[in-house]
Design brief:
Radius of gyration: 17 Å
Number of domains: 1
Order of helices and strands: EEEHEHEHEHHHHEHEHH
CATH superfamily: Alpha/Beta hydrolase fold, catalytic domain
Structural class: alpha/beta
Strand order of the largest sheet: 1-2-4-3-5-6-7-8
Distance between the termini: 28 Å
Low-confidence stretches: none
Largest sheet: 8 strands, mixed
Strand content: 15-25%
Helix content: 25-40%
Shape: globular
């Protein structure tokens, strides 16, 4: 279903009853990446998944795609659905969105799960802004998709590529420029005080383990779990391990 927030139509799904848990997807993904997690957790929680602006079935306007804009969309959705306090499970760009939301609205977050997260991406990632001017859009996106996995099958790559190409070029590049060049909460994350679970793939090339260790060191009382044989797309490559970690954390 769709609802209007911040002058755009946002697609979301809402299932179950209990404490609200919102799953927030990453760049070039959409809410379908969390589909295998809805049923297992909607038995004891109200589970919401949604598509960021520019992704999936949500509107794809031209304009701002900053992490702040995405966090404002999340805030508006929470208000629109009258959710009160929520648990956020964010991956990659969705983890950045979740962290910023938790920092800006600490009273609205119960717990935080950060998957493939970073307080600041390394400068080498910003090199992609140069590469994209050389490569055709599809080739750049294909490279980005492949880099997110450790040992993917061709079927996984093609499925992810199909989803990724649903994000138009202007939105994909605007997001990329924002989270690689402007996003930086390194000096704020220590202010996160809610229970936090940090999950990262051992072979993650996009947000290496060191970035999650930094977050774990800054967020007091947080729990870090490194998943072996896994790249950046933890929820796709190692779904059972992530479900187990979430079940133990969420209760």
């Amino acid at each position: 279903m769709k609802t209007e927030i911040n002058d755009i139509q946002v697609y979301y799904e809402d299932q179950g009853q209990g404490e609200p848990v919102i799953f927030v997807h990453g760049w070039l993904d959409d809410s379908s990446v969390w589909k295998p997690y809805v049923e297992p957790f909607s038995g004891g929680h109200r589970v919401i998944v949604y598509d960021h602006r520019g992704h999936g079935q949500s509107d794809k306007p031209k304009g701002s795609y900053s992490i702040k804009t995405l966090a404002n969309d999340l805030h508006a959705l929470i208000q629109k659905l009258d959710l009160g306090k929520v648990t956020l499970v964010g991956h990659s760009m969705g983890a950045m969105t979740s962290m910023l939301f938790a920092l800006d609205h600490p009273g609205r977050v119960t717990r935080l799960v950060l998957v493939g997260a970073a307080a600041r991406l390394p400068s080498i990632m910003r090199g992609g802004s140069l590469i994209r001017h050389i490569l055709p859009y599809r080739k750049f996106i294909e490279m980005a998709v492949k880099s997110a996995y450790h040992m993917p099958s061709e079927a996984v790559i093609q499925d992810s590529l199909k989803t990724a190409l649903n994000t138009p070029k202007y939105a994909a590049y605007a997001c990329y420029d924002e989270f690689t060049g402007k996003y930086d909460v390194r000096y704020r994350v220590a202010k996160i005080e809610v229970p936090t679970l940090i999950v990262v793939g051992e072979q993650d090339k996009n947000t290496p383990v060191a970035m999650s260790r930094f977050l774990s060191g800054e967020i007091k009382g947080s729990r870090l779990q490194v998943i072996a044989g896994c790249g950046h797309e933890v929820m796709v490559e190692k779904p059972e391990e992530l479900k187990q970690a979430l079940a133990e954390f969420l209760g």
